[in-house]
Amino acid sequence: MEVCVDSFESAQAAVQGGAQRIELCSSLDQGGLTPSIGLLRLIRRRLPFELQIFVMIRCRAGDFIYDDNELSVMEEEIRLFIESNQHVNGFVLGTLNPDGTIDIESLKRLVQPIPKDISLTFHRAFDFIPKWETGIDQLIELGFQRVLTSGQETNAYYGRRCLRQMISYAQNRIIILPGCGINVANLESILRETGAKEFHSSARIRKQSKMLYKNVRKKISINGLNNNHGDDEEDSAMQVTDREKVKLMMDIYRKVFCK
After folding, report:
1. Residues contacting 248, CB < 8 A, separation 6+
2. What was the pLDDT predicted at 220?
3. Which of 251, 122, 127, 131 is nearest to 184 (CA)?
4. How far apart are CA 114 and CA 229, in angstroms?
5. Which of 60, 74, 180, 186 shows the shortest CA–CA distance to 127?
6. Which pTM value belongs to this model?
């Protein structure tokens, strides 16, 4: 189980629930962006060293078509993480051309400085490409170990038929990592119907803010947007990984694979 997290609290909950790998991000509400080195260092200092950490490299929200400046930003982020000596186990990244195909040259530019012993995952930009068979072959040639995908559907449960086809096509040359919308209710079906050996989930719950004072100006928003609905609690709530959800999903995984 790989748990995507964007805070120390979530990383700790993932470990307490039994996860052995996290995808470290910021801004999961925007699909996940590059995290801070400060967060990585705190996790390495306070959580077991055996925890595998895959770092998201994505400089902004939106599409996956990047100009030279944006690529330079991501190159610098990769360099800083490598030079931080915080034992990064993997990087998660992806680039596309306007026609939806994988931007091979930009991807080569980003992965070139990454040591060979650091794993590479192509993120869910994969779900926007027109020919996934070609994409799998290209990523194998580039040295990627994983593809994070929902089977090109809105979530992995709806995409489970395509995920099975991807896994069959990959023939153990690359790991197909189902992700998006995986939860306690659908995990067993996804594992059994796709044949996936790994999966990706946030296992999150909604956490209420501890803020007691309520500003009477209802349209002020923490997130910098107009709060027209006037719901302070909704605006200040957070999404965090839940230890019990992780435990339950780990139990389901063992039920399927560890009979």
Report:
1. 184
2. 60
3. 251
4. 46
5. 180
6. 0.92
> What is 2-203+242-257's CATH number?
3.20.20.380
Mean pLDDT of the chain: 93
Only one residue has tokens 């052995």, namely 20
Residue 170, both tokens: 């990959």
Q: Where are the domains of the chain?
A: 2-203+242-257
Among 200, 206, 252, smallest CA distance to 233 is for 206
Q: Which residue has the tokens 């307490």?
A: 16
Name the residue with tokens 């026609």.
99
Distance CA 115, CA 135 (A): 22
- Other Cβ atoms within 10 Å of 174 Cβ, number: 22
Q: What angle do CA 243, 197, 26 make, to 5 degrees?
A: 45
Strands in 90-93's sheet, in edge-to-edge order, are 175-178, 146-149, 119-122, 90-93, 52-56, 21-24, 2-5, 200-201
Beta carbons within 8 Å of 80's beta carbon, 6+ residues apart: 37
